[in-house]
Amino acid sequence: MVTYRSDYAERVYAGWLGKVIGVRHGANIENWTYERIERAFGEITDYIYDFKNFAADDDINGPLFFMHALAELPLHQKVTAEDMGKVWLNYIADGHGFFWWGGYGISTEHTAYLNLKHGMAAPQSGSLEQNTKAVAEQIGGQIFSDIWGLLAPGDTDAAADLAEKMSSVSHDRNGIYGGRFVAACSAAAFESTSVKEVIQRALTTIPQDSSYSEVVKDIIRFHNEHPRDWRACFRYIQSHYGYDRYPGICHIIPNTAVVVLGLLYGDGDFSNSINITNMCGWDTDCNVGNVGAIVGILTGLTGIGVQWTAPINDFVCASSVVGSQNIQDIATVAQHTVAISKRYFLGQELPDEPGVHAHFDFELPGSTHAFRNHYPQGLPVTMVCNNTDRVAFSGKRSLQVSISSLVGGESYRTYLKTYYTPEDFNDSRYDPSFTPLFYPGQSVSMNVYISQGDEEQVAARLYVHNIQDGTRVYGERTVLPIEKWTTLTWKVPSIPGAVLSEVGVEWIPLAEIFGQPKSLTAYIDNVQLQGEPEIDISFASEKLEVWPTLRQEVRQLTHLRGLWMLEDGLLTGSGAGESAEAYTGAHYFKDYTYEAAIRPVIGSSHGVLFRVQGASRSYAVVLKKGHLALMKKEGTNWRTLQETPFIWRHGVDYRISVVAADNRFSISVDGELLLDYTDHENPYVSGQVGFVTMDSSRTAYVSYHIHPNK
Questions:
Q1: Which residues are registered as beta bridge partners of 478?
Q2: How far apart, in whole angstroms, are the C-alpha atoms of residue 255 and residue 657?
């Protein structure tokens, strides 16, 4: 049975940390051989690369979004392989980001995606009969499956069954057994005392006569005979289970052998486990990610050293089509994982704070929720964020901010990044793109506390940073009392054209400094972002963001497919055959008035999107030939809900306005109400906005606006 022990949330957090640490640790030497790694680095003891921020990776994308399959089902309904396939179509862009798109019949995930897109349901989409044995038994069924163990703590069979449903979307036979094994290892780690016990419990969930089971047992045998020499074990793997013995780009069996090696020879020590696994080479980010997740759960947070967690600072990047879900933090992901598990297995509804779209409580030990610091350059100062149980506004923990020395009147800031650009990354790994987490018109609140110390005259004010012009906008300045919690709250004013990249608090020392430098220890707790946006964007002021691979994305847009560019102060979109779609705003937007100035260029179908919940759930208002149509997307198909005659011309600007209030939509063109529709059939009641051009058309957009309904 699924068992929720008192430390369940902390173990989930440790598992997620282990996963992200492992993927990051192996990312830049993926597909290197043992010999290359040994020649370059010798004995690995720490991260071998430093990143500004670690960009998206398929090993992390999968677990982050695949677990939505359990959250989006009706309560008490059990998930199917077909449901898992629907999650693929909703969160994965068509041919870019998320996965390695190596070609049909070469990349297993690319093959499965195209099968799904063209109407083939899972599990046929991943079957051996459909895709050949070579494609079906690559590594993907294994690399994404730690999540099912995190969701089914202690229950190896339940975790393995969930993994099989998801793995069958793209894999078969050994590809599925790998998913079952890794998921069962993660589930068993919640209640086991050793990696040997973890592995033995997981083995019971796969066919004993399979080649997957045979390789696991063989590595166990070798370890029993040679318990101290992992290099001898790897030489044995090279000669008996090397890549040369299996078809395809990245077969599951050689890498399974390395995962089991890393678990056994690491013997429950987190650092040893991930370092040994990394030194073996081959699919390093996948293998080290699996080992990191399993051992992270087994050892818990105390087993993962700060050398591994500090460089990550809880930040995790993704590359789905939903840009506001591509900026996440590991602590919140862990809390969400716990909530999804209890919804699926216990029937508990997901927690809901009306109007609040982000809440950071720092209750998980070590969590920072990706908050960062900035201090005046050129000054001899250190500024550090740490999780602490010394004081808390609510619960037991808070974020401690330590500043070593202060200069009166200078600016020291603690903040959350709410938008990222190519300059924030070293590479363009798996093509991330983003929409902001926070907007003008919304509110931020937090509780702050100044402890008794050297500096006792400090003011604070909330602020946002507008990346478009580099300016900061500030709330009211408050002089803080000592040893007392103060609540800071601020509604950000309307800022036309703004893209907010930071929201946080500025600490301002008020005293002149003489003699010894003064220091400051402050605390932050219960941070909330909430409210309705006020967005006013002209594409004449927007920018193209150029990534290191020369990939270009329009600032604060993601896209499903099509060519989206900025030309002559306009956003232009075009596509061939299928609808070309681009999205902006945030997934949590609910009721709003969305207005866009649209200019048909060529073709017969030009429109806007609203209540976008991903690539397969949204509404569109489209200028079709001779009429205006309200359409609904369900999967890959568009269905017309309502239409009215409307004559439009190419090259003319039209102002389309959508008032979305719960399940009712009022649609106007140039101020004239033309459509009014109430959707009673599974309405979409939240989501982003966007732009769409259909039927091989080309459309231009001048501007868009999002405001609260009047």
A1: 460
A2: 53
What integer pLDDT is reported at residue 515 of this predicted model? 56
With bands split at pLDDT 50, 70 and 90, how would you rate the model's confidence at 428? Answer: confident
- What's the CA gap between 234 and 348, in Å, rounded? 46
Residue spans of beta strands (DSSP E) within 531-636: 535-538, 544-546, 552-554, 558-561, 563-567, 570-574, 580-584, 592-602, 605-612, 617-624, 627-634
Residues 495, 498, 502, 506: is their CA dihedral positive or negative? Answer: negative
For the stretch 105-154, pLDDT in tens is 999 999 999 999 999 999 999 999 999 999 999 999 999 999 999 999 99
Banded pLDDT at 513 (limits 50, 70, 90): low
Give residues with Cβ within 8 angstroms of 447, minimum separation 6: 393, 485, 486, 487, 488, 524, 525, 526
Provide, rounded to the nearest whole percent, the portion of the chain with pLDDT above 90: 94
Contact (CB, 8 A) for 54 and 312: yes
**Model-level pTM?**
0.97
Chain position carrying tokens 């009641």: 685
- Please write the tens of the pLDDT for every residue from 469-491: 999 999 999 999 999 999 999 99
CA trace torsion 603, 607, 613, 618 (10° rounding): -90
Element (H, E) at 38: helix 34-41
122: Cβ contacts below 8 Å, ≥ 6 apart:
81, 82, 84, 85, 112, 116, 165, 168, 169
Kindly report the number of other CB atoms within 10 A of residue 38's CB atom.
15
- Residue 20 corresponds to which tokens in the numbers above? 């992200």
Per-residue pLDDT tens digits for 55-96:
999 999 999 999 999 999 999 999 999 999 999 999 999 999
Which three-class secondary structure state does DSSP give residue 329? Answer: strand
Give me the phi and psi of 90, to 5 degrees please. -85, -35
SS3 content of the chain, % helix, strand, coil (to 5): 30, 30, 40
What are residue 316's DSSP bridge partners? 328
Task: Go through the domains of the chain in sequence order and give each one's CATH number.
Answer: 11-44+53-317 (1.10.4080.10), 358-531 (2.60.120.260), 536-707 (2.60.120.560)
* Mean pLDDT over each residue of the chain, to the nearest integer: 96
